């Protein structure tokens, strides 16, 4: 059997990921899929069991041969924290080691909050959660709005929180909380949530549409996040966009608040309803000129993006999910009408099923995927 040259720690992490993902259930499955000798695989699995990360969960009978021992992760061995924030709120989700969600909650971020306030809110939220969960915190993932360099652990450019630019956010949080931290663009952590918990579990190539307080796209290709040479893939919200009122950036045109104002016939500075989801749901069946103008703008943006990235399916996230499949179907159809070249590669837009917790769930998934067992030789 051909074997792969994989470091011991890396192989431990791959074993855990495949069990958690449901791609393998036994030592034999793991050995076959990772192209490792069965005897070697048994050694690595036994080490994970001995250190408490994994357990045997009974027998399973295949179509032929002897029953195999089913493997499972021990959810009680630790947990991961995910935080994702926008201009107005911080969302946190905690998941256990097996990938099961434990808790989720949201806290507001005051209007005009300083960088120091945002960072302190992150730290306070994590400390409160850690005090209530009786197992070790293994890692933290943070989804940040803007251009993020996950290698350096910094925010390179943020329209919403310019004070975060070039601050070593990852290092700051690690020093304060003494736990490994990973940061990433917030739309890419949403893509992680879709990959682990949503429709993306069954898709190898998909993209996220994120009209929330801004607008951006994230893509998963071959099961992995696409980030780009400068970690800037998907920042379509920064595109210049011509409007009747002059040139603006796309995120100012397609954001959820702006979309609600356009559909509801409100002024550009009108106050946003306390429950934007419900307010948008009331407009889901409208058939006004504003509706068609909004669909047209989304179709142009999504169609142009599709000509660049050719994703298999686009999951709509954020408050506009309340507009339902009618809105998504209208975007798909209008994109084809605007761009006949898409005839053989049609745009498929569908609303996510994950709900408002996707950002925090994805940030926790980011920490979960980055977990390193650190087992000694």
Helix and strand topology:
Layout: H1 8-21, H2 27-34, H3 38-50, E1 54-60, E2 68-73, E3 79-85, E4 89-96, E5 101-108, H4 115-132, E6 137-144, E7 147-149, E8 154-157, H5 169-177, E9 181-185, H6 186-197, E10 205-209, E11 217-221, E12 224-225, E13 240-243, E14 246-249, H7 250-254, H8 256-264, H9 276-281, H10 289-309, E15 314-316, H11 324-338, E16 349-351, H12 358-370
Parallel strand pairs: 3-6, 6-9, 10-15, 15-16
Antiparallel strand pairs: 1-2, 3-4, 4-5, 7-8, 10-11, 11-12, 13-14
Helix pairs in contact: 2-3, 4-5, 6-12, 10-11
Description:
With 377 residues, this protein is α/β, with parallel strands linked by helices. The protein has 3 domains: 8-73, Arc Repressor Mutant, subunit A; 78-192 and 359-370, ATPase, nucleotide binding domain (Nucleotidyltransferase, domain 5, 2-Layer Sandwich); 201-353, ATPase, nucleotide binding domain (Nucleotidyltransferase, domain 5), CATH 3.30.420. 38% of the residues lie in helices and 22% in strands. The chain contains 12 helices and 16 strands. The strands form 5 sheets. It has a 5-stranded mixed beta sheet with strand order 5-4-3-6-9. α2 (27-34) packs across α3 (38-50), α4 packs parallel to α5 and α10 crosses α11 (324-338). It is globular and about 70 Å long. The two termini are 24 Å apart.
């Amino acid at each position: 059997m051909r074997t792969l040259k994989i470091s011991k720690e890396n192989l431990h992490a791959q074993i855990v990921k495949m069990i958690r993902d449901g791609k393998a259930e036994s030592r034999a499955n793991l050995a076959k899929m990772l192209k490792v000798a069965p005897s070697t695989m048994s050694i690595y699995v036994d080490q994970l069991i001995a250190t408490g990360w994994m357990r045997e969960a009974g027998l399973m009978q295949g179509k032929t041969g002897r029953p195999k021992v089913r493997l499972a992760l021990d959810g009680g061995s630790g947990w991961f924290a995910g935080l994702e924030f926008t201009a107005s709120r911080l969302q946190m989700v905690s998941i256990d080691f097996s990938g099961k969600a434990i808790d989720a909650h949201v806290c507001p971020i005051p209007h005009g909050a300083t960088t120091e306030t945002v960072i302190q809110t992150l730290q306070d939220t994590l400390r409160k959660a850690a005090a209530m969960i009786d197992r070790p915190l293994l890692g933290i993932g943070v989804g940040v709005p803007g251009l993020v360099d996950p290698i350096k652990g910094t925010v390179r450019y943020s329209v919403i929180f310019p004070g975060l630019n070039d601050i070593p956010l990852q290092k700051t949080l690690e020093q304060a909380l003494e736990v490994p931290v990973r940061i990433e663009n917030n739309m890419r952590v949403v893509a992680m949530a879709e990959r682990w918990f949503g429709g993306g579990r069954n898709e190898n190539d998909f993209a996220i549409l994120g009209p929330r307080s801004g607008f951006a796209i994230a893509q998963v290709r071959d099961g992995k996040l696409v980030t780009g040479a400068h970690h800037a893939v998907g920042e379509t919200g920064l595109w210049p966009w011509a409007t009747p009122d002059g040139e603006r950036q796309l995120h100012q045109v397609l954001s959820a608040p702006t979309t609600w104002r356009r559909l509801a016939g409100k002024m550009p500075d009108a106050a946003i309803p306390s429950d934007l989801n419900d307010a948008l749901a009331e407009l889901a069946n409208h058939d006004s000129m504003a509706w068609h103008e909004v669909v047209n703008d989304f179709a142009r943006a999504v169609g142009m993006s599709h000509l660049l990235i050719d994703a298999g399916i686009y999951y709509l996230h954020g408050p506009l999910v309340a507009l339902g499949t009618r809105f998504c179907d209208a975007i798909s159809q209008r994109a084809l009408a605007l761009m006949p070249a898409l005839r053989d590669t049609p745009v498929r837009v569908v609303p996510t099923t994950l709900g408002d917790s996707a950002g925090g769930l994805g940030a926790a998934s980011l920490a979960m995927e980055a977990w390193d067992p650190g087992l000694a030789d």
